[in-house]
Backbone:
């Protein structure tokens, strides 16, 4: 029988004989059975009765459990006892049956979990026997008892005596204790005593026979004071002692605290010496070890070779001091002795030294004549693969960055896989890899050739990483003994949701990486969103490839030998240098994600990047000839679906063409206007496709000091300045081009004017999207929320930290004073082919109300947010508030007003009483409107939020109605709505008052609670205007009430004390109307 109280009291039954208000109960939080008579005022006799057991069907029954108590005191009439009965009928008063006491080990002090010891039940007989705990306490004696982990089983109890010699220790004032798996590792439950005063502490414990136990001795009663058990007397995969208990009573041998033997006994331990001879020309006689333990040269030991590593093991006495040297050759016939000084050598003779540890030890691998390890050859992990379309195509590629061949028969390398951050598996490498070449390890020998067209260099079923498994390259040994050389992933970490996850894709080491790295560094790798087997490049790393002049297809993203000069026609990866030659028939077109190192476009070569597709050039971009859009060498395309994306990490030479799609102007609508930024370095406007001269188009820049749009046609500016934004009006839907040298470096702005409202129109200066407000933006006196024109909405949308600013897009920022600065960082570039007019992502934030207004006349809308934060104020909070920018004339406008400032996003301090926030609205057309509220679930359950329509004198509860429909015209007063907030507090401050109820009947208000804390509370009543109409202090009772002499209507009742509060809406019916 087992009972751990995971699901209630299980089959146990609580039976209260005396004391009506208390009983044994189950703790749902901690999963145990407990009884406490506190505050009962009566004699508490309460039984916890286990289910009936057929003892006649078993033999040698034993019982164990754990117990704990707190408070109270015991004597003959007040205690907890364990009994059994063979005549109890299973129900009713236990006192009508015969009960025999069983004895168990009581806890020695308060709040100490204590094992019962093994209770012998072998003398108990009967086909239906009940065991029970009897709790018997009088007033003033009540004790809180807990019992748990009942086990009744067959077995033989054995008394085992544990002994530890403490003569070499200063014994703690808290005594010496024994902890193990037999007492749940309770450090204070089992105290040992020195009865004879001979420093040997003992204790006898009753244990089950034929069981394996682990344990430690503790000099005190807390972790941090336990012994360090030497490795040779530890249990496997453990730091604990171990003992197998037979079926007779006995004593475990005395050991010295922290030792495998008794005090005063010295042991010999195997010490393994290792030296790496990679940087030496090894003598034909081999390598020797000589030292004080060999009589130096006379007894020098010849070491054993494994690749470049030489080893030997010597048995040495613990705690002795030894000196030694490695010798290249026979020390007795001209061998070369080490002769160097360092932290590992003695002065004068320059010998290595060590104190023999208390365990067999593998010494660190060192380089000949050095205290450190030899630098390993330049072998790196270059590609890790788990394709989307076939798990059989998984492999790991290694690459030799050095200048000589690495022969794995002499250079011991291991590739270690760690699965899900847990188990580690070594694969010893075989064969060799030439300088500048790659070595492929694959997991599936029967499938690799059919997928990739050649055999891998080595096969192992271990190489089957599925995306969240890490790979680690070790030198001269596996993960237990080797030197870590290179790492893909983080040791002991599951790769799920990590930046190194390669599930259904690949990871390629960048060409710029010229040395291994033992620490995972994401910036060294290119990991596409997805990758198929045709995207992989096994055996090819740091290649130089060209687009073939005789290509028969234009698709860059197809693996084909008639297209690419790479091995097997591989599609270039991030390590390849790519050259585009003049293709007579088919110019390359990027139709999917693409990457390379250097990219060179020869004279007359052409490369196009289709809309929404990304290209990353991790090295340099070189374009041989500068062409107009009609015959562009590099064309970054755009259409209604989105923009192509180009990121160049290195230098840029030559001109490119970056396109931008524009929708034309509809009469009477706020479209056709576009905020733009140029990705071309200080591009001249005259003669470009953006020059509005002689057309119906317009081009403007925003002037903050005068708060006006300045027209290009009036000569206000001549170039697109890097990082500035512009407003253009396009008469008809079109695609326009930016032409010139693309920007790929940071753009800094400082001391932007603050003459009026501080708004400035900036522009994305790159041919890729930007992640807003990373740390590299270094915003100083600049608002953390940017705003971008959303043509779908006819309004400005918020750009929060982490949102994408599309390429070629403009965006507004607001400064707080004239001493400001920011950097538009190249490091924030990201691939996101988002359409130029897409709204920002919706954020789910606690205590935030999101309001969206739509209408029946057009598709335009506006969004407003109101939230609460501890650090917020009623003014503009630069870190999380956003002022309102007015949108298109026919679009609806929604904003809140706080301290005479207009907000589209407004965070406020928490509301412990009530708060009224004006919500202004301006109609864009005369029609029906729909105001939708989201986020009520983000507020804690007792918060109350209401919308009041001042026009219609109507109020709705947003917890019960989240859509409000109304009719409005463009001439209506903007001050139409008020938001009423009651008791909006942080979810961290939610009070535990769920048992309190507030309700009304006619004009009487009732407060009822069985668990109201014992301190004064204050009750306040508000009308829907937020005015307090009633308040008083109340004392905690089961039920309180008061009369509310107010008009019939809805009122808000708040009961609070310090940070504890509860709020409830009530309906009052009164004659005072």
Residues:
């Amino acid at each position: 029988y087992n009972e751990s109280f995971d699901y209630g009291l299980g089959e146990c039954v609580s039976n209260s004989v005396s004391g009506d208000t208390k009983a044994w109960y189950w703790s749902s939080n901690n999963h145990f059975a407990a009884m406490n008579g506190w505050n009962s005022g009566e004699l508490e006799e309460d039984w916890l009765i286990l289910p009936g057991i057929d003892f006649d069907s078993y033999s040698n029954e034993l019982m164990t459990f754990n117990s704990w108590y707190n408070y109270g005191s015991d004597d003959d009439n007040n205690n907890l006892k364990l009994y059994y009965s063979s005549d109890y009928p299973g129900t009713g008063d236990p006192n009508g049956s015969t009960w025999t006491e069983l004895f168990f080990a009581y806890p020695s002090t308060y709040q100490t979990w204590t094992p019962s010891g093994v209770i012998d039940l072998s003398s108990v007989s009967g086909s239906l026997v009940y065991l029970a705990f009897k709790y018997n306490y009088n007033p003033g004696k009540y004790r809180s008892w807990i019992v748990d982990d009942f086990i009744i089983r067959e077995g033989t109890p054995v008394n085992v005596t544990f002994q530890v010699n403490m003569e070499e220790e200063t014994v703690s004032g808290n005594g010496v204790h024994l902890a193990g798996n037999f007492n749940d590792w309770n450090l204070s439950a089992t105290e040992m005593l020195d009865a004879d005063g001979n420093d040997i502490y003992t204790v006898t414990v009753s244990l089950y026979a034929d069981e394996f136990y682990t344990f430690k001795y503790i000099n005190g009663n807390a972790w941090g004071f336990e012994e360090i058990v030497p490795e040779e007397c530890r249990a496997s995969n453990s730091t604990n002692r171990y003992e197998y208990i037979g079926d007779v009573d006995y004593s475990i041998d005395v050991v010295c605290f922290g030792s495998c033997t008794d005090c005063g006994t010295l042991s010999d331990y195997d010490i393994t010496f290792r030296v790496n001879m990679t940087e030496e020309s090894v003598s034909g006689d081999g390598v020797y070890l000589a030292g004080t333990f060999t009589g130096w040269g006379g007894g020098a030991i010849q070491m054993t070779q494994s690749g470049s590593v030489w080893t030997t093991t010597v048995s040495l006495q613990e705690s002795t001091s030894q000196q030694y040297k490695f010798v290249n050759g026979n020390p007795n016939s001209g061998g070369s002795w080490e002769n160097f000084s360092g932290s590992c050598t003695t002065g004068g003779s320059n010998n290595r030294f060590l104190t023999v540890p208390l365990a067999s030890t593998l010494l660190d691998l060192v380089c000949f004549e050095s205290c450190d390890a030899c630098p390993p050859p330049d072998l790196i992990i270059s590609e890790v693969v788990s394709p989307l379309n076939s798990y059989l195509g998984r492999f790991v590629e290694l690459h030799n960055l050095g200048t000589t061949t690495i022969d794995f028969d002499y250079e011991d390398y291991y590739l270690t896989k760690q699965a899900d951050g847990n188990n580690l598996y070594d694969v010893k490498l075989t064969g060799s890899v030439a300088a500048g070449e790659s070595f492929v390890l694959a997991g599936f020998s029967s499938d690799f050739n059919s997928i990739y067209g050649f055999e891998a260099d080595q096969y192992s079923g271990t190489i089957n990483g599925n995306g969240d498994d890490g790979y680690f390259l070790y030198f001269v040994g596996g993960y237990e003994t080797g030197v870590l050389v290179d790492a893909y992933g983080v040791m002991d970490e599951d790769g799920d949701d990590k930046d190194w996850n390669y599930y259904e894709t690949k990871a390629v080491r960048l060409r710029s990486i010229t040395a291994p790295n033992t620490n995972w560094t994401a910036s060294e790798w290119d990991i596409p969103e997805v990758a198929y087997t045709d995207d992989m490049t096994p055996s090819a790393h740091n290649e130089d490839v060209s687009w073939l002049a005789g290509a028969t297809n234009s698709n860059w993203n197809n693996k084909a030998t008639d297209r690419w000069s790479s091995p097997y026609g591989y599609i270039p990866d991030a390590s390849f240098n790519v050259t585009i030659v003049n293709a007579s028939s088919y110019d390359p077109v990027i139709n999917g994600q693409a990457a390379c190192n250097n990219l060179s476009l020869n004279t007359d070569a052409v490369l196009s990047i289709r809309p929404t597709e990304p290209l990353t050039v991790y090295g340099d971009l070189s374009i041989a000839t500068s062409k107009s859009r009609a015959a562009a060498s590099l064309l970054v395309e755009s259409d209604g679906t989105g923009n192509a994306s180009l990121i160049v990490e290195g230098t840029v030479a030559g001109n490119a063409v970056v396109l931008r799609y524009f929708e034309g102007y509809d009469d009477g609508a706020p479209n056709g206007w576009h905020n733009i930024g140029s990705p071309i370095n200080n591009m001249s406007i005259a003669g470009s496709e953006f020059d509005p001269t002689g057309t119906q188009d317009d081009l403007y820049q925003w002037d903050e000091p005068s708060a006006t749009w300045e027209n290009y046609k009036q000569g206000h500016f001549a170039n697109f300045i890097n990082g500035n934004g512009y407003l253009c009006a396009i008469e008809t839907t079109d695609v326009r081009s930016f032409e010139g040298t693309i920007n790929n470096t940071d753009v800094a702005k400082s001391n932007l004017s603050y003459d009026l409202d501080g708004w400035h129109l900036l522009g994305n200066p790159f041919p890729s999207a930007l992640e807003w407000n990373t740390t590299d933006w270094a915003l100083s006196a600049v608002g953390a929320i940017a705003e971008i024109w959303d043509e779908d909405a006819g309004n400005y949308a918020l750009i929060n930290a982490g949102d994408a600013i599309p390429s070629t897009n403009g965006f507004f920022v607001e400064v707080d004073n004239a001493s400001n600065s920011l950097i538009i960082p190249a490091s924030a570039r990201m691939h996101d082919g988002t359409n130029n007019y897409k709204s920002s992502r919706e954020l789910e934030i606690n205590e935030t109300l999101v309001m969206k207004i739509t209408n029946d006349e057009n598709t335009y809308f506006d969004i407003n947010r109101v939230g609460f934060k501890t650090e917020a104020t009623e003014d503009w909070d630069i870190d999380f508030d956003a002022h309102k920018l007015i949108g298109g004339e026919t679009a609806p406008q929604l904003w809140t007003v706080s301290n005479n400032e207009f907000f589209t996003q407004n965070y406020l301090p928490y509301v412990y009483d009530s708060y009224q926030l004006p919500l202004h609205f301006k109609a864009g057309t005369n029609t029906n409107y729909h105001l939708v509220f989201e986020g009520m679930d983000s507020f804690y359950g007792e918060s109350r939020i209401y919308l009041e329509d001042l026009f219609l004198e109507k109020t709705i509860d947003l917890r019960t109605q989240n859509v409000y429909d109304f009719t409005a015209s463009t001439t209506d007063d903007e001050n139409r709505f008020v938001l009423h907030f009651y008791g909006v507090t942080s979810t961290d401050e939610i009070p535990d008052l769920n048992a309190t109820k507030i309700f009304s009947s006619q004009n009487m208000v009732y407060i009822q609670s069985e668990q109201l804390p014992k301190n004064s509370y204050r009750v306040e009543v508000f009308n829907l205007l937020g005015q307090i109409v009633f308040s008083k202090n109340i004392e905690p009772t089961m039920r309180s009430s008061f009369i509310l002499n107010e008009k019939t209507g809805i009122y808000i009742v708040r009961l609070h004390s310090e940070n504890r509060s509860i709020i409830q809406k009530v309906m009052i019916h009164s004659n005072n109307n």
Summary: Residues 986-994 have pLDDT under 50 and may be disordered.
